[in-house]
């Protein structure tokens, strides 16, 4: 069976289960934590999850730790089900599917703001206020630092990119010069 289809089915089942119990937000937070932990240690997780020689209770403890330690009953029962069906190799994709489903159901808009240096809290709050005004639902902002931006910022969302960075301006200037389309 298709890994994407399996992951999607498990994520939908978990979402419905958590929603019935009113814990879908907590499970969402656990899935975010798991996703970030998995990304940081993906090669180790793949070895452990791919090994039949590692006991399921050890894998369960690793999954719980990756989700933040003290997990909800819903997350714990879900992890046990995944292990019982030997689908742990798909857990990363299940987490991503759950996150996507939760955001879609809650109409959450996710923005990524990339700057060369950390922003001051006041600047972050102004950006958050501007982005929240135009959104139809809640807003999540991921703040990233990338020195190659050089200055300014890059704003990304699902279908839109605003490049107001110095690096972006220099790239556009170089292109215009090479194409001979620069006008003064």
Quick gist of this model?
The chain has helices at residues 3-21, 24-40, 42-50, 56-66, 73-84, 91-106, 121-134, 166-179, and strands at 109-115, 139-145, 152-156, 161-165. By secondary structure, it is an alpha+beta fold.
Description:
With 184 residues, the protein is an alpha+beta fold. The chain has two domains: 3-104, Orthogonal Bundle (Peroxidase, domain 1), CATH 1.10.520.20; 108-179, Dihydrodipicolinate Reductase, domain 2, CATH 3.30.360. The protein is 61% helix and 13% strand. It is built from eight helices and four strands. It has helices at 3-21, 24-40, 42-50, 56-66, 73-84, 91-106, 121-134, 166-179, and strands at 109-115, 139-145, 152-156, 161-165. It has a four-stranded mixed beta sheet with strand order 2-1-3-4. β3 (152-156) and β4 form a beta hairpin. α1 (3-21) packs antiparallel against α5 (73-84), α1 packs across α6 and α4 (56-66) runs antiparallel to α5 (73-84). The longest helix has 19 residues, at 3-21. The protein is elongated and about 70 Å long.
| Morphology | elongated
How much strand? 5-15%
End-to-end distance: 59 Å
Can you write the helix and strand succession as a string?
A: HHHHHHEHEEEH
List keywords for this structure.
184 residues, alpha+beta, Peroxidase, domain 1, Dihydrodipicolinate Reductase, domain 2, 2 domains, 4-stranded mixed beta sheet, 8 helices, 4 strands
């Amino acid at each position: 069976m298709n890994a994407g289809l399996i992951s999607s089915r498990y994520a939908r089942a978990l979402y419905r289960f958590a929603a019935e119990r009113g814990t879908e937000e907590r499970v969402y937070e656990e899935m975010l934590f798991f996703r970030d932990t998995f990304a940081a240690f993906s090669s180790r997780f793949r070895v452990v999850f791919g090994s039949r020689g590692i006991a399921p209770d050890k894998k369960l403890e690793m999954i719980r730790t990756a989700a933040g330690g003290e997990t909800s009953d819903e997350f714990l029962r879900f992890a046990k089900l995944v292990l019982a069906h030997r689908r742990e190799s798909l857990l990363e994709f299940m987490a991503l599917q759950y996150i996507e489903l939760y955001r879609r159901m809650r109409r959450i808009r996710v923005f990524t703001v990339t700057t060369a240096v950390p922003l001051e809290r006041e600047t972050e709050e102004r950006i958050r206020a501007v982005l929240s005004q135009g959104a139809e639902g809640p807003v999540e902002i991921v703040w990233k630092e990338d020195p190659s931006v050089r200055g300014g910022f890059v704003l990304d969302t699902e279908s839109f990119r605003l490049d107001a960075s110095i690096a972006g301006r220099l790239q556009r200037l170089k292109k215009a010069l090479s194409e001979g389309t620069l006008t003064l």
